[in-house]
Design a protein that fits this description.
This protein has 8 helices and no strands. By secondary structure, it is an all-alpha fold.
């Protein structure tokens, strides 16, 4: 296959992915998307879809991979700012909220499909969130906590941040700052409680 044909195929595949993402909304989950509508928006015939994806489920799994890339982007940006001396909690929340606002439909996929009707997508979403928790666990361990304690903190923190992100997508612009502030406060409660327990255990 010539380079131009490879590039054209990749462009078409990308157009299908972008068309699917653009159709997600608060009312429209991935499970409700129509192949015909996705291909119409991508500017291709429905039969051409199958040159790029086996079925809509495979397209959905590709979109979940995009979510995973977004989550890893959050971790990379956050870790870089941690190393420069920024607040771990404030930095994490602000970056997550920022990416949720700039790529809302990517995160709608996560929030919708985590409890959606397509089992393969639920499993894939859970896997990406688990990767995120493990990354955060590694960081918490690096600042002095044992693995069990670090994982418990990371799991609780991810739950709070994801809940805040889901709330943010449905919120008015005037409500967003309050959602961010509340998430930061809740994460500080977790961090403070974990630190208190850690000190208490070290004295036993």
């Amino acid at each position: 296959m010539s380079k131009s044909r490879i590039e054209q195929k990749e462009q078409t595949r990308r157009a299908i992915i972008d068309a699917a993402i653009s159709q997600l909304s608060a009312e429209q989950s991935f499970a409700g998307l129509s192949l015909r509508e996705v291909t119409r928006q991508a500017g291709i015939a429905p039969t051409s879809f199958y040159r790029h994806f086996k079925d809509m489920e495979e397209l959905g799994l590709t979109l979940v991979d995009e979510c995973g890339l977004a989550l890893r982007q959050i971790m990379r940006k956050a870790r870089k700012q941690f190393e420069e001396g920024g607040s771990v909690i404030i930095t994490s929340v602000k970056i997550f909220m920022e990416i949720t606002e700039t790529s809302p439909n990517i995160f709608r996929l996560l929030f919708h499909e985590r409890s959606g009707t397509m089992r393969a997508l639920r499993t894939a979403v859970d896997r990406e969130i688990q990767y995120f928790i493990v990354e955060l666990t590694d960081y918490v361990q690096s600042i002095g906590y044992d693995k069990v304690s670090a994982y418990a903190q990371a799991e609780a923190m991810v739950a709070i941040v994801f809940n805040a992100g889901a709330e943010l997508l449905a919120a008015k612009a005037s409500q967003r700052k309050e959602i961010e502030k509340r998430a930061i406060m809740q994460l500080r409660y977790i961090a403070t409680g974990a630190h208190t327990l850690h000190i208490a255990k070290s004295k036993i």
